[in-house]
């Protein structure tokens, strides 16, 4: 491809004409455009093939830096080559290990081309991706086969027997119910756990069609479709829930996972179905959720009364009695703290029961962020919160809840960077999305914790004792952002600070003033 052959017309929201977009969308290669002028060089456009190759959705792509494609595989020499080419403003083609949303590795033949403006400054990058995993696999396989073909023949019989024994012993040891199916869903094998869970015999199961078992409990249209998909596409069935009144064992909740299995030569195109009885676990979770909901409601009632009494006390207190006024003020502050903790717990139980109300109103997004920063700054004088950029957007969303998200990210940034005073907030708009980034220079988060911190009640182990918290702030933030059709994520390295970012679509009302 010739260097810098891409001409980009710069209009307000769309870089290219609809015709070109249509052409890009018809391409079998994944194509993305990033905006080098925005913080962290975010993706502002991708075509349909890019979603297909990576498995990510638009919401998970737009606004992100491309590095998510490498997941945790960051030590590849190709990354350095890309960095150098980008710095030099040159185009480059590399073959790099990338990962799909489901974690599957794919080899990406990646062509990156910078776009420069009249002054020679790089404004955008265009990335063209082709999944060359197949070619790579074939190359690797050929090389291996050339060297080891004789050895393989010798080892084959032995390894086959071992693998079969190995698989059988795994199947028998596992506590979940396991079923091996042929491509027509006929049951070839079940393990002891399956017979025990469903109180059935092998005779009632083996050689029968899966969908005919029991009182046809597995004969569910969507499950059929998912299972039919496994062999041609290799897509597993993950955590499919079946609630059913089963023969012999009654009403139960079962969690199903299914994968294609293949043992060299012998087993080909078989499906391994794992069935886990999660009835009890679900009941305990439900009891916990019910407790949370009842407890937070019950706590709220007396607290509301106490707040009222304190307000009353303030009126009756002797204006000369400084000591008494101070004590009442301090009580009031603590009650407010307690009130917001209970409000957070209530939010969690509302989210769990699907009752978190999101009201869409038009509001000035930049003003909301500014006001939120001001109020957080007021009670945190030791940190300096700096605001960069603006969106200029009148946003259609829930102002109170979005302000809660920004306040939460700011309080976390402050809490988890006790000795580093600077917190930066970046605002940006691209196309039909706005993006907020909250950056601190504090503790940072390691890779395995990064995946879990948005879960309910998750707190990073070694900070639990030092910093107070309930582990629900980020969970609530994520739910609020998801309900606005956006996405929230963190970029962080242990010891090197964290940047929490979220994007949301602007939806209807539009733009207030242009940059
Ligand atoms: P909480 O702060 O109450 O524990 P959150 O849900 O807000 O709950 O955060 C979950 C966890 O994520 C925290 O316990 C902390 O370990 C980690 N975390 C959140 N924000 C940051 C940050 N800015 N820097 C480092 N760690 C963070």
Automatic annotation (TrEMBL):
EC primary class: transferase
Occurrences of domain PAC (ranges): 92-144
Membrane protein topology class: Multi-pass membrane protein
Key words of the record: ATP-binding, Kinase, Membrane, Nucleotide-binding, Phosphoprotein, Transferase, Transmembrane, Transmembrane helix, Two-component regulatory system
Residue span(s) of domain PAS: 16-89, 163-208
Domain (Histidine kinase) ranges: 294-508
Subcellular location field: Membrane
CDD domains named in the record: HATPase (cd00075), HisKA (cd00082), PAS (cd00130)
Catalytic activity field: ATP + protein L-histidine = ADP + protein N-phospho-L-histidine
Primary location group: membrane
First and last residue of the signal peptide: none
InterPro entries: BphY/WalK/GraS-like, HATPase_C_sf, HATPase_dom, His_kinase_dom, HisK_dim/P_dom, HisK_dim/P_sf, PAC, PAS
EC number(s) stated in the UniProt entry for this protein: 2.7.13.3
Pfam families: HATPase_c (PF02518), HisKA (PF00512), PAS_4 (PF08448), PAS_9 (PF13426)
Classification via NCBIfam families: sensory_box
UniProt-recorded name of the protein: histidine kinase
Protein source organism: Sphingobacterium oryzagri
Taxonomic path: Bacteria, Pseudomonadati, Bacteroidota, Sphingobacteriia, Sphingobacteriales
């Amino acid at each position: 491809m010739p260097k810098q052959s891409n001409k980009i017309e710069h209009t307000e929201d769309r870089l290219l004409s609809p015709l070109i977009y249509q052409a890009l969308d018809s391409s079998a290669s994944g194509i993305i455009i990033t905006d080098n002028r925005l913080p962290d060089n975010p993706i502002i456009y991708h075509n349909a093939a890019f979603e297909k190759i990576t498995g990510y959705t638009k919401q998970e792509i737009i606004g992100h830096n491309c590095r998510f494609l490498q997941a945790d595989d960051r030590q590849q020499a190709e990354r350095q080559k890309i960095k150098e080419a980008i710095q030099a403003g040159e185009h480059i083609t590399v073959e790099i290990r990338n990962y799909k949303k489901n974690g599957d590795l794919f080899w990406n033949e990646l062509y990156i081309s910078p776009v420069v403006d009249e002054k020679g400054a790089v404004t955008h990058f265009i990335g063209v991706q082709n999944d060359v995993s197949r070619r790579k696999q074939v190359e690797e396989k050929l090389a291996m086969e050339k060297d080891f073909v004789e050895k393989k023949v010798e080892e084959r019989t032995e390894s086959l027997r071992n693998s079969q024994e190995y698989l059988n012993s795994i199947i028998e040891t596992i506590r979940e119910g396991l079923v091996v199916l042929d491509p027509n869903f006929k049951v070839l094998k079940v393990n002891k756990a399956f017979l025990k869970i469903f109180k059935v015999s092998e005779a009632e199961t083996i050689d029968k069609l899966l969908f005919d078992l029991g009182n046809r409990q597995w004969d569910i249209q969507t499950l059929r479709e998912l299972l039919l998909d496994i062999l041609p596409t290799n897509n597993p069935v993950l955590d499919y829930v079946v609630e059913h009144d089963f023969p012999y064992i009654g009403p139960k909740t079962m969690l199903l996972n299914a994968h294609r299995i293949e043992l060299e030569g012998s087993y080909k195109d078989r499906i391994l179905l794992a069935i886990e009885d999660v009835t009890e676990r679900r009941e305990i979770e439900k009891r916990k959720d019910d407790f949370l909901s009842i407890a937070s409601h019950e706590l709220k009632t007396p607290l509301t009364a106490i707040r009222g009494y304190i307000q009353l006390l303030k009126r009756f207190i002797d204006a000369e009695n400084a000591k008494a006024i101070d004590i009442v003020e301090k009580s009031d502050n603590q009650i407010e703290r307690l009130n917001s903790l209970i409000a957070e717990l209530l939010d969690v139980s509302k989210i769990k029961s699907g009752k978190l109300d999101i009201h869409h109103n038009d509001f000035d997004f930049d003003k909301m962020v500014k006001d939120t920063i001001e109020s957080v700054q007021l009670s945190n004088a030791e940190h300096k919160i700096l605001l960069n950029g603006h969106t200029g957007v009148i946003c259609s969303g829930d102002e109170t809840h979005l302000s809660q998200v920004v306040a939460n990210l700011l309080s976390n940034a402050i809490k988890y960077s006790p000795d580093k005073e600077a917190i930066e907030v970046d605002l940006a708009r691209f196309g039909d999305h706005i993006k907020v980034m909250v950056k601190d220079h504090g503790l940072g988060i390691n890779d395995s914790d990064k995946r879990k911190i948005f879960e309910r009640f998750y707190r990073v182990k070694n900070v639990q004792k030092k910093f107070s918290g309930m582990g629900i702030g980020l969970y609530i933030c994520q739910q609020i952002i998801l309900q606005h059709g956006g996405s929230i994520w963190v970029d962080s390295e242990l010891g090197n600070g964290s940047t929490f970012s979220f994007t949301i679509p602007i939806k209807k009302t539009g733009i207030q003033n242009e940059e």
